[in-house]
Amino acid sequence: MMTRKILLVESDDKNREILKSRLHNAGFNVRAISPLADTDTAGIETNHLLILCLPCLKLNLEEALWWIGEWRHKPILILSDAHEPELVVRLLDAGADDFIPRSCRYDELLARVRAAFRRGEKYGDTASTSNCIAIGGFSLDLDAKRAFVEGRDIHLTRTEFSLLAELAHRSDRICTHEELLGKVWGGEYWDANHYLHVYFGRIRKKLGAKYSGLLETVAGMGYILHSVSHEAAVAYAG
Length: 238
Prior knowledge:
The protein is α/β, with parallel strands linked by helices. It has two domains: 5-123, Response regulator (Rossmann fold); 132-237, Winged helix-like DNA-binding domain superfamily/Winged helix DNA-binding domain (Arc Repressor Mutant, subunit A). It contains eight helices and twelve strands. The protein has helices spanning 13-25, 61-70, 85-94, 106-123, 158-169, 177-185, 193-211, 230-237; strands at 5-9, 29-33, 49-54, 76-80, 98-101, 132-135, 138-141, 146-149, 152-153, 175-176, 215-218, 222-225. The strands form three sheets. The chain has a five-stranded parallel sheet, sandwiched between helices. A four-stranded antiparallel sheet has the order 6-7-8-9, covered by helices on one side. The longest helix is centred in the last third of the chain and has 19 residues, at 193-211. The protein is elongated. The termini are far apart.
């Protein structure tokens, strides 16, 4: 098993040491820094997970967006005091994987960290059988963890790719909300359907008007990735 390395970014010295100690005691290799530390040595390549602690989302939004932009190919957890729904959605839209209120129980925090690592291990930089799924001008490269629309990389985040990969493995069949949440986020997220709404909305925007129709929302059940583009389906029916 790989050494699970976490970068913890926390401005409060006391909280930073407490969190670092608890995560270390749970078996994680933790590097804890202040947001004011030299970000060039933050270790994006050598760390597997970012926990970004923010005292106030509204005051620290730009800082959060910068970190998300830098770490967009790694799992990112946001830990904050305030739950401001519109700002949480904006951070998820930008590429964060999860939002965790500071008031959550410590065992829940650990469960969410473990779930993030499971996602990273499943969809990370591991060897896999060469496989590329093409649907019209849309292609999903399961090795490179990239997606293309008519040859153009649409720059999926890790979580966006994970969702599409789950659907692609069962194309033309419904993946239920519970299945997707369990596979991509972990069993702890069985009731987080709003995450799917946010992420699939973002994926559809990246696919564009021509290919967003490949994704079908089945009300009250889940999602389908169709193996035939709308244009091909129309031609076949004609």
